[in-house]
Amino acid sequence: MADQTQMLKGILDGCLLAIIKEGEIYGYELAAKLESYGFTSFSEGTIYPLLLRMQKEKLVATTLRKSTAGPKRKYYSLTEKGEQELLLFHQRWNQLNKTVNKVLKKEEM
Amino acid sequence: MLSKQSEKFILELRMYLISKGKKDQEIDEITEELEIHLTRAEEQGKDIANIVGKSPRKYMKSLSNEMKTDRKQMAVLIPMMILLIAAYFSFGPAIEGTFALSSIILWFALGGAAIGVFVYGLVMCRVLPSLYKSFWGMVLIFGANIFVTGIFVMLLLWMKSHSAQPFFVATPLQNTIIIAICLALFIASAIYTKTWITIFVPAFIGLQAVSFRYFSDEINSNPNVFIIGIIVLTLIVGSGMIFLYKRKIKVQN
Fold first, then answer.
1. I need a surface site. Which of A25, A73, B7, B44 has the fewest CB within 10 A?
2. What would the pLDDT profile of B224-244 be if each residue is shown by its tens digit?
3. Best interface-test mutation with B: which of A26, A42, A44 has the largest number of B CBs within 10 A?
């Protein structure tokens, strides 16, 4: 669903940060986890441009580790700045969630 | 093992990012990461479209937008390509001991450099990835390579007969210096780009020029000798390329 994809774009950043916070993780695993949570409407590769940006903004740190099968994998972990960004995302999401629910339920402020 | 389609995508992505002047290390990192992802996804029975979406070009662009452009690398690559083309033109005449500059040669050099940069970019980014790993693709690339080299040789011959009123004629010492500079440039660019092309092409031009200089006119004017020479050289260069290509595939696997 195209509309859902548009809506997801901004939210995906926060969800990626939240999953990375659980522990070091590499790209494929990250996509698989997102899918297991129910994010199925976007192509898996969408995460890589986002991860590249997060790296540039120093929200995540990376390390290359050997794997038992095949080439080295790039693992992502959260930086201090990333943790702060995740907190902000929580606040923004809660606020948005409340507002949208009110609109949908037609409650007035 | 990656599917042919995914392998083609990875190569296309690599060429695309190189053409956009992205950093080597970053290109290696993202292509390796995607290679791992595609391999695992294909093991699970997923298609490449599940990973990169409906438009691979658009996806490549979205990655490129988030990567740093390495201006230093671009600053090296473009002048190097122009210098290389100049060296291709100068190498043959210098070996023959007839290096000279005239306005015709300079115009040719300028035109050749412009066309060369354009064709090189087009082949690297658009043509090569689609032909990669297909037998006829390799035959086509190889054929085009010989064709281009042939044109170079013809051009050198034509220039030799038309280069009227040169304003600079190199002395034997200057010819030797030009050869040395050209060789250094060929070797440096082969090391820098990690390809053999800048060794093969000058070898082709060089051998032809050597034959002009050291063999009698009688042998050189005999078309049979010329054709046999080209066939032998083609076989040597061709088998060399196939050997390197197979070794590369083996290393990759």
1. B44
2. 666 676 677 677 767 776 776
3. A44
As separate numbers, helices (DSSP H) first and strands (DSSP E) second, chain B gives 12, 2
Q: Which residues of chain A make contact with B41, given a CB cutoff of 8 A? A: 28, 44
Size of interface A-B (CB pairs under 8 A): 55
Single-letter amino acid code for the residue at B220: N
A38 touching B (Cβ < 8 Å)? no
ipTM: 0.86
Shortest CB distance from A43 goes to which of B36, B52, B66?
B52
What is the pTM assigned to this prediction? 0.61
Closest by CA to B166, choosing from B228, B99, B235, B238, is B99
Kindly report each contact of residues B232-237 with a partner whose C-beta sits within 8 Å and lies 24 or more positions away, as own/partner.
Answer: B233/B204, B233/B207, B234/B146, B237/B200, B237/B203, B237/B204
Structural domain of B242: 72-252
* Domain A2-105 part of CATH 2.40.100.10: no
